[in-house]
Design a protein that fits this description.
about 0% strand, about 70 residues
């Protein structure tokens, strides 16, 4: 004879909802932090590329008008 699964009562469901909402909030916070870090890294990369370009222009024998 198969046993029927237990039905969840309202309190159990509410507790599970609360727990899942907390997990989701923590995941959103982690995602936001990772996104901010990625944005900062892109900005740093852009800044470094601009510095390298300026150094290359300064070392170049061409004038800025020729470039």
């Amino acid at each position: 004879m198969m046993k029927m699964p237990r039905t969840k009562n309202i309190k159990t469901i509410e507790a599970e909802i609360s727990q899942t909402e907390e997990q989701l909030q923590r995941l959103k916070e982690r995602c936001d932090k990772a996104s901010q870090k990625l944005d900062a890294l892109y900005e740093l990369k852009k800044h470094r590329e601009q510095e390298e370009l300026l150094k290359a222009i300064d070392k170049s024998t061409r004038t800025k008008a020729e470039i």
